[in-house]
Amino acid sequence: MFNFISSKLYAPKNGSNDCASRGLKQNCALIMPGCDLSSLFAAAKIGILFGNYNLFAIFTWQKNRNMKKIFPLILCILLCWSVAKAQTGNRTVIISTNAGDMKVKLYDDVPNHVNTFLKRAEAGEYNGTLFTRVIKNFMIQGGAPDSRNAAPGMRCGFGDKAAEIMPEPDTVHFHKKGALAAPRQPENINPAKKSDMSQFFIVHGKVYRPGELDTLELVKNIPIKKKAMEIYYQPVKLELALLKKDNPREYRKRALAINAKVDSVLRATPGHLIFTPEQREAYTTIGGCHHLDGQYVVFGEVTEGLDIIDKIAAQPVDGYDRPKKDIRINKIYTTN
């Protein structure tokens, strides 16, 4: 059974890179008629390559009399680059299903997953497939090629090894409700944790109480803290006990230093658990699945249509978690 735990770059359509280049030249020409466009465009490329768009530095350079002559040129390059940069931000898609539509924002910091997803979506590879694994308070998973035209009750959703791509480092995104992520095979047969882009899952999750998150942190971190205390506290335990009575100020100073070292060890140890303020806000309001964090690549989030996730997650399922009534993906298409 396909275990859900969670390469090419997407080529812009219709030569959009060339169009962007022409647009940059034309915009510069409008601002600075008569300028050498080839030299200007070359300068723009160099500026972009080295990231020379610090306005503070540019205004500092303007104090130099010679720099005043090229200041409009630099400002023009910055303006055009800002426009071009704005056009390559987070992209949006619609996942249209027979249960309703979900609007999804795709993240721009996991480009290989996003580009692979978009390439498959534009090729229609998700069209007509089913949500094959639906578990309330957990997730809904769909898109598998073998689910297209699958007979009622047929077991499907096994994925496609040929569609696997390497994971991308991600310490920012997490599995809140609506998170769009890539499933994968378990580590015993997939040690590289490659994502299977032939399908995807969307988190349904549960809402946690703040105290639950505190307890989860405590239970997860106790073994790590215990080992750190054995290193930094146990050797000076008796000394600190005497110091607490004789010199409270020095005791507090030493105790704070030990706590800082223990905390440093905790944060540096793989497997520790400290919820960020953003995670706490999400998990205690809309909910999610915290135990998936760090295990799968999250490459987008549902911004409209969370109720559709609820609707799909509430469907009766068979013994393999496939909805008894087919929930079909009609089409996935971009809106920008």
Question: Can you walk through the features of this model?
Answer:
This protein is α+β, with helices and mostly antiparallel strands. 40% of the residues lie in helices and 14% in strands. The chain has ten helices and ten strands. An eight-stranded antiparallel beta sheet has the order 3-4-8-6-9-2-1-10. Strands 5-7 form a two-stranded antiparallel ribbon. It is globular, with a radius of gyration of 27 Å. It starts with 15 loop residues before the first helix and ends with a strand.
Summed up, what is this model?
The protein has ten helices and ten strands.
Question: How would you describe this structure in keywords?
Answer:
single chain, 336 residues, alpha+beta, eight-stranded antiparallel beta sheet, 10 helices, 10 strands, disordered N terminus
Strand content: 5-15%
Radius of gyration from CA coordinates: 27 Å
What proportion of the residues is helical, as a percent range? 25-40%
The overall pLDDT, averaged over residues, is: 82
Shape: globular
Which structural category do the helix and sheet elements fall into? alpha+beta
Count of helix runs: 10
Largest β sheet strand count, sense and barrel closure: 8 strands, antiparallel
